[in-house]
């Protein structure tokens, strides 16, 4: 049974100007259950990630600041969320969800997190609504426990995974691939193992042609035994922050390309959702639900 981590950052717990982007985390599970794509027993609630596991990736000084609510005003502004124990707790739970999903992916081929993809978090700081880098922490967990020898992180959010790239620059066992809007946030890009910056207005056929060419080569050259996939839907033409021109159907095809490569090579994959900022929440939810629908179809 394909398992899905779920513990949302509830919109009502956040300031009004941050509520809308978080609504999707509450709506996606309900939609998937309502339509019959998933059953309630596929969802699991993670516990809180241990400090020991977080310190495989983040500096102790930064982690202590988070735990003790000791971030400076400048650090809080960089993150974009107000400082609160509840937010740190949820971030630790979401991170544990990605770690737990790894075990389920080994069993079932795939596991998903209805959150995560916090790829702007660095070793010593957070930014861009990201406090902890869940995929980097989970990757380091797999390496430290010798469950994996070579990991491929596929980041297809419209924003470069700058934190992930920085964290893994000195780790040869993790290959980072980011295909993102070249002129989009973050304006200072870090260096992934492979970066493909896209021009503003890149359409779906162009996007898919590039990805179709790159993915088979990556799987062949990297030869990963585990894949993390960040499936942000802020590549959509409707996204107010994205600057690309990808359709809902083309976004779905993107997920299919990733899943089929992993499936054909017999490589377990963990999926985190990443960004999505279309004005219509229904578009965001539908785009993310497509990822789950495809996962059930291909790996179910």
Automatic annotation (TrEMBL):
<feature type="domain" description="Histone deacetylase">
    <location>
        <begin position="24"/>
        <end position="281"/>
    </location>
</feature>
<dbReference type="Pfam" id="PF00850">
    <property type="entry name" value="Hist_deacetyl"/>
</dbReference>
<dbReference type="InterPro" id="IPR000286">
    <property type="entry name" value="HDACs"/>
</dbReference>
<comment type="similarity">
    <text>Belongs to the histone deacetylase family.</text>
</comment>
<dbReference type="InterPro" id="IPR037138">
    <property type="entry name" value="His_deacetylse_dom_sf"/>
</dbReference>
<keyword id="KW-0378">Hydrolase</keyword>
<dbReference type="InterPro" id="IPR044150">
    <property type="entry name" value="HDAC_classIV"/>
</dbReference>
<dbReference type="InterPro" id="IPR023801">
    <property type="entry name" value="His_deacetylse_dom"/>
</dbReference>
<protein>
    <submittedName>
        <fullName>Histone deacetylase</fullName>
    </submittedName>
</protein>
<dbReference type="InterPro" id="IPR023696">
    <property type="entry name" value="Ureohydrolase_dom_sf"/>
</dbReference>
């Amino acid at each position: 049974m394909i398992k899905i981590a779920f513990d949302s950052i509830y919109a009502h717990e956040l300031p009004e100007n941050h509520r809308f982007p978080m609504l999707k985390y509450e709506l996606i599970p309900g939609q998937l259950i309502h339509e019959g794509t998933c059953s309630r027993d596929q969802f699991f609630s993670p516990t809180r990630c241990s400090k020991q596991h977080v310190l495989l990736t983040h500096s102790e000084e930064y982690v202590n600041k988070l735990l003790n609510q000791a971030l400076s005003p400048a650090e809080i502004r960089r993150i974009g969320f107000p400082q609160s124990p509840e937010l740190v707790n949820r971030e630790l739970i979401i991170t544990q969800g990605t770690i737990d999903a790894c075990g389920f992916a080994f069993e079932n081929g795939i596991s998903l997190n209805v959150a995560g993809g916090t790829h702007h978090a660095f070793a010593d700081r957070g930014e861009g609504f990201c406090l902890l880098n869940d995929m980097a922490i989970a990757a380091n967990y797999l390496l430290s426990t010798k469950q994996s020898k070579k990991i491929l992180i596929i980041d297809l959010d419209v924003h470069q995974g700058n934190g992930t790239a920085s964290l893994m620059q000195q780790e040869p066992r993790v290959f980072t691939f980011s295909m993102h809007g070249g002129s989009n946030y973050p304006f200072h890009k870090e260096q992934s193992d492979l970066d493909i910056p896209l021009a503003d207005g890149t359409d779906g056929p162009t996007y898919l042609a590039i990805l179709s060419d790159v993915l088979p080569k990556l799987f062949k050259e990297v030869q990963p035994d585990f894949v993390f996939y960040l499936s942000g839907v802020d590549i959509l033409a409707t996204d107010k922050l994205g600057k690309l021109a990808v359709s809902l159907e083309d976004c779905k095809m993107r997920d299919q390309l990733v899943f089929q490569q992993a499936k054909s090579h017999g490589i377990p994959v963990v999926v985190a959702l990443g960004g999505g900022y279309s004005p219509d929440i229904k578009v965001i939810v539908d785009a993310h639900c497509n990822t789950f629908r495809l996962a059930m179809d291909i790996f179910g």
